[in-house]
Amino acid sequence: DQEIRNKVERALEETASALSLNYNVEMRELNEHAEDLVRRYGNKLLADTVARVGADPKRKLGKNDRLIGAARFCLDNSINPSTIIDVLPLAFSFDVENDPSSKEVCSYYKEHGLAESIKKYCQLNETEPLFGKIIAADKKNRKEQK
Length: 146
Known about the structure:
Elements lengths: L1 H22 L3 H16 L7 H5 L2 H4 L5 H11 L5 H10 L8 H23 L6 H17 L1
């Protein structure tokens, strides 16, 4: 899906910008690495399925892991992680068959809502700017779906 691919590329660009600033690494090198990742995700022979990449959201939503960790790192380096933030609310409803972690996160999200899920799985509280940005992204996404 081209829309998903575009979002992945933009999220990688946001993270690469923060890495470049923080570690003084050339963007060219980071972009080459990002392009390689996208190429591998698209390689059907590697069987890197969406289910596998999205599995275990309980861990990947952690404060210092894939999604929240990347968004926080961007913010710490004055990079706006708008794409990462835009897709973050969707991670709470990503339900992978035979993945107890995704079943737990989805169930908790359905029962308690986004704000409580962010507190529990992302270890963020309402006073942190990222918390409000995720809530705002969810509201924007819901409005666009109508």
